[in-house]
Specification:
Radius of gyration of chain B: 19 Å
Oligomer: heterodimer
Largest interface: A-B, 26 and 24 residues
Number of helices of chain B: 2
Order of helices and strands of chain B: EHEEEEEEEEH
Radius of gyration of chain A: 18 Å
Number of strands of chain A: 9
Helix content of chain A: under 10%
Shape of chain B: globular
Strand content of chain B: 35-45%
Structural class of chain A: mainly beta
Shape of chain A: globular
Largest sheet of chain A: 5 strands, antiparallel
Strand content of chain A: 35-45%
Strand order of the largest sheet of chain B: 7-6-5-8-9
Helix content of chain B: under 10%
Number of domains of chain B: 2
Strand order of the largest sheet of chain A: 7-6-5-8-9
Distance between the termini of chain A: 63 Å
Number of domains of chain A: 1
Order of helices and strands of chain A: EHEEEEEEEE
Largest sheet of chain B: 5 strands, antiparallel
Number of helices of chain A: 1
């Protein structure tokens, strides 16, 4: 009986994406440690800002972005027991939807907190990366607000 | 200081597989480890498939006979590549070719080297350039590239069904 062959096989696609006016402005804001949203046709402040209105498909104004707070409330969360390569933490952690103060929607990110300390409704704040570059990882993660 | 606005980002996507080849690919890869190009012949239509499959896609019958094919062949078609893709370090422009190794009835995609890009032509006779023997592994990459043979070009009629 011959040995069964087996080998790691990795595929990587280093996509370069154009960000467009809205996501570009959002990422530029992150580089300055500011979180930006946009007001949609229903009057809600949406973070991150979409280029088009979800209800009417109208183009939203990329030059009228609204800064929201870097602190907010967890509106939903999900435990990630087996993080994958490239995710914010190597150890198990929670994905959270955070409604930042001044926003009406949730921003998806990771929360650095023990599982038994996580609750919907808890106050959290952004932990910024040491050197923001204009990418979603400029938000290193969320952490419980004091 | 005013930094430029962000207009683009790089977002790598990565898939990590563990590949376990089946019976026929394993046979092929074991051959490569020994510097041999192996195929299998269809008992019905007599075509030789490289790498070997389990059965003939045309006749629907199981393959039996193992066949070793030559590491010389005919370049049946090719493309001149002017844009490198990530993690590939080959001087541009280069030629990616489809080679029918002698004794095979299929073609394999290989790098063509050893000739200026604008002199590469269909029907050109080529020979595999293998990596040093001590670098051989269970992979087709043991054939680093093919290079021209000092032979007359093959007649179009002899390879037209592979173009």
């Amino acid at each position: 009986m011959t040995e069964v062959l087996s080998a790691p096989h990795s595929m990587e696609f280093p996509y370069t994406r154009s960000t467009g006016p809205m996501v570009g402005a959002f990422l530029t804001g992150l580089r300055d440690r500011r979180v930006l949203g946009v007001r949609d046709s229903a009057g809600r402040v949406v973070v991150p800002p979409p280029e088009y209105d979800a209800g009417t498909a109208a183009v939203l104004p990329a030059d009228e972005l609204i800064e929201v707070a870097s602190e907010g409330v967890v509106t939903s969360w999900s435990w990630n027991p087996k993080p994958r390569l490239g995710q914010p933490f190597e150890q198990p952690f929670a994905w959270v939807l955070v409604q930042l103060d001044g926003a009406d929607t949730g921003l998806l990110h990771a929360l650095d907190a023990p599982r038994d300390a996580i609750r919907t409704g808890m106050r959290v704040r952004i932990r910024w990366a040491e050197e923001p570059v204009g990418f979603i990882k400029d938000i290193a993660c969320f952490e419980p607000a004091p | 200081m005013t930094a430029e606005p962000i207009t683009g980002i790089v977002t790598p996507i990565r898939l990590d597989y563990t590949y376990t080849p089946g019976t026929s690919p394993s046979q092929f890869l074991r051959g490569m480890k020994e510097g041999r190009i192996l195929g299998r012949r269809c008992p019905s239509c007599a075509k030789v498939y490289v790498p070997p499959r389990g059965g003939c896609p045309m006749c629907g019958v199981e393959f039996a006979e193992e066949v070793r094919v030559a590491d010389t062949g005919t370049l049946v078609t090719f493309a001149v590549v002017n844009v490198n893709f990530a993690n590939r370090v080959i001087d541009l422009p280069y030629v990616s070719g489809e080679v029918r190794f002698d004794g095979s009835d299929t073609t394999s995609m290989v790098l063509v080297q050893g000739i200026p890009v604008d002199q590469v032509r269909m029907g050109m006779r080529v020979k595999a350039h293998w990596l040093p023997r001590d670098e051989w592994d269970f992979t087709f990459a043991n054939i680093d590239y093919v290079e021209p043979l000092d032979e007359p070009d093959a007649d179009y009629e002899s390879y037209k069904e592979f173009v």
